[in-house]
Amino acid sequence: MTEPALARTKGAEQFGSSSAAASGQSGDRILETRSISKHFDATQALQDISFSLYPGEVHALLGENGAGKSTLIKIITGVLQPDGGEILLAGTPVVIRSAAEAQRLGIAAIYQEPLLFPDLSVAENIFVSHQGRGQVVGWRQMSQDAEAILAQLGVAIDVRSPARGLTLAAQQSVEIAKAISLNVRVLIMDEPTASLSAHEVAQLFGLVRDLRGQGVSILFVSHRIEEVFEIADKVTVFRDGRLISTRLRSETSPQRSISDMVGREMGLLKPRPRAAIGELLLSVRGLGRESVFEEVTFDLHRGEVLGFGGLIGAGRTDIGLALFGIEPATSGTIALDGKEITVRSPREGMDLGIAYVSEDRRQLGLSLPMSITANITLPMLHKYLDRFGLIRRGLETETAEAYRKRLSIRTSSVDLAVAKLSGGNQQKVMLSKWLNTKPSVLILDEPTRGIDVGAKAEVHAIIAELAATGIGIILISSDLPEVLAMSDRVLVMREGRQMAIFSREEATQERVMTAAMGQVSAPIGEVAA
Amino acid sequence: MTILGRLKSWEGLLLGLLAVIVVMNILRSPYFLGAGNIANLFQLSIEKIIVALIMTLIIINGEIDLSVASIMGLAACVLAWLFQMGASLPIAIVGGLLAGLAAGLFNGFWVAYVGLPSLAVTLAGLIGFRGIARILVEDRAIGGFPVWFNTLGQQGILGPITASILIFAVLFAIVAIVLHGSALGRLVYVIGNNLQAARYSGVRVQSVKMTLFAASGLIAALAGILYAARLGSVRGDMATGFELDIITIVLLGGVSIFGGSGNLAGVGLSILVILNLRNGMGLANITGNTQTSVIGALLIFSVLAPNLAQNLQRRWIGRKT
């Protein structure tokens, strides 16, 4: 067996064949990627990934959102094509052009939300990928085969019932049965436990161990670090599109994996200069929205930046939506300037001085074909009408020009369609739109996602400036260094629950990520700053 | 090319088409440019083009109203029924208008507040309102209205210009101002472009949609009453199938069926193109069925052309880079 080239990333640790022997799984790699790379526009999603999977091992991939795990999985399953590098299956170079081809090669994937046909029976779902392969299978035969596979898995499901109505866990069992029917050699499980109860997770892990016993290799992606350390034989950590380390579970620890995940470069990011924090502005107590998030409690002061840290899907955006009235809260209280308020619609939120700048510029934040001006004045259009109810274009343009200057929006004209602008300038238009509502509470959801470094620095400067004028800012960001550099305090969410509030001094990348992954019970900071 | 540029070029295309048709019509018939013929041109389709104005707003908003022709029939039948029951004609007219408004509010409620797709809701309206109209007048033709009512629909009041044409002109101006100058018009575009972004901006999406459907019902009722005045009698099946001609006019005017783009100038040109085309083909003794086929071909072209242009443009850019 040839030793794979040492990863070129500085500080990377390579897991070699000797350790494979140590884990009792000698033999050839079933799957190997050599120097795989992939970029989307300017972003390098994967850089020089050399990774090996051995028969009969459960290999976990860990990393922050955007670290590159999903891209690698998409390449292995044929959904994406790499820009460079090669994939070897049992030692033979292969080109995987589609998910169907990956299945033929014995690579199958199951996801958090199973992708079954709800109106087909369980048996039909299991054998759906066998269609068009020249096999004529009778219904009775198919049912018997399906029952045999499910029996082998130790799962009791009526194979004649439709997939609709099965629990998520049962649906996943069907997905696994489907993979087995395809003689899968590599099974990829992408956050399979995210929607399962503890009991269902235990069942799933039983299945995973059985499959491993049969020599199937499992690539396991999860943000629940304790699960990773329960089930995985090896743990590989990704960060910023690079493979950082591959270690045997016995040779590493959750803390060590988290250290590998978060060692991100601060880059050009400078900590925001400390500004005076004013009086109490927003007081949230026990806020919740049924089965989305619960028991969120925090205070926000004038001039303060409160960061919301955590992984995507942890419920941070949902808190923003509740405060702004798009998806109103169902429990708890909100007080603004000492007065208790209820927010049932975005219009009510706006009238109370709350603004929410969406994470999704293109779908939720802006009307792309419309002009910069029309986008900026939209929420406050009623302030731009003359006595006949007609729009005062001159006044509109004045406002747009003022923001163009204040936030240095780079455009030839404010009449240009927003679609024509770069991501960074679109972001500034969105900020202008909400600053024009004169908010006292500004909720920024991923304000620097998908914009270039220069624009990012500008947005950070704008945030600092706004805080200095006494606006209370909630900064939701999955960019950990950004949250730490900008925030006075950091509230960490995990799976809809508030894990901790850290002061600026307490908040380190490791502490925040540890809380976000729910590994160690982090000290819950005081509610009042 | 910017969106504005593409719209401009679409209108340019319509304008060119219009010029060709008008020249051909003039060459074919010396009477074509006479004031009488031009007024007649409008008069023959006046009810459809009145409703096309409000339909423009509805389609830009990203919705559709298939029930307009049935509301036209309903309003006329309510008018005839009230008149037969002994109500005075002005009262009967108000009754017809209120019936249209009620039908529009009914559509608007389901679309705006319950969130059902307008295609389904107004299809139900198309069937249901027509049913009510037929129940009211059964299989009769109700006529015998006062002379002034018929005069309203048939006689020119300014030379050859009828009251219906005047009403159309006034509505055209109002819709132009609303769509291109008022807050409501801006919101119509914003919602048509991206409903979620509008909602996230605090726009009262529901009330905008409700307003449009209510206006659509009211204007369709007005058109139905003018139609009754022009025909001089009312039947349960009057205006059947008009909704398709109305939607055709709007789409040919460059309004996107997906909402968010289009303008009233394009629809105005589209009205002129269709009227002149039909009139010219009529003068040339081309049968109604052939006329309909030509308009169908034009509609396909109008939906296809922007996509085609975009594809060609993309391919061209692709070759350059």
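Chain B touches chain A at residues 2-3, 177, 181-183, 186-187, 189-190, 193-194, 196-204, 260-261 (CB under 8 Å).
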